[in-house]
Amino acid sequence: MQAVKVIFVLSLTLAVAFGRKPLGAPKPLEGDDLAKAKDLLTNTLTKLAAGDGPKYEVVNVSSATSQLVAGSLYKFEVELSNGSDNKECTVKIWDRPWLLEKGESTNIKIQCKDEAEIDTTW
Ligand SMILES: *[C@@H]1O[C@H](CO)[C@@H](O)[C@H](O)[C@H]1NC(C)=O
Ligand SMILES: *[C@@H]1O[C@H](CO)[C@@H](O)[C@H](O)[C@H]1NC(C)=O
């Protein structure tokens, strides 16, 4: 009886551990997916600039990944320009289309070297 219990608990633990796996690892983007992610990055930065700012333009994308969490989390290593200076930055965009009506469908975080993180949601 005890053995059965142990196996039950064990398999439950495994189910929990492996059930989460699809929400796990960031996936490097290439081809079409990369092109779409770059579009999202450009469009999101444009919206940010049109709102409270700051105004950044993409100079170069050195890496891009996406990860399934509740929604899609995109992470870019990029060179951004604020109009006068180029900076190495990490940009994270969390896309949750179903929160559009609540005004929370897009969260963007920009962390540039030696600067405070920008964290904006709309
Ligand atoms: C863009 O980044 C890639 C990867 O870091 C690099 O190989 C390439 O030279 C860069 N291009 C420009 C225009 O800076
Ligand atoms: C761009 O960033 C640099 C360095 O942080 C800053 O000195 C400059 O004023 C910024 N330019 C604009 C147009 O925001």
UniProtKB/TrEMBL annotation:
InterPro entries: Cystatin-like, Cystatin_dom, Cystatin_sf, Prot_inh_cystat_CS. It holds the Pfam family Cystatin. Keywords: Signal. Residues 1-19 form the signal peptide. It comes from the Eukaryota. Residues 21-113 form the Cystatin domain. One of its GO terms (molecular function) is cysteine-type endopeptidase inhibitor activity. Belongs to the cystatin family. This is Cystatin-like protein. The lineage of its organism: Eukaryota, Metazoa, Ecdysozoa, Arthropoda, Hexapoda.
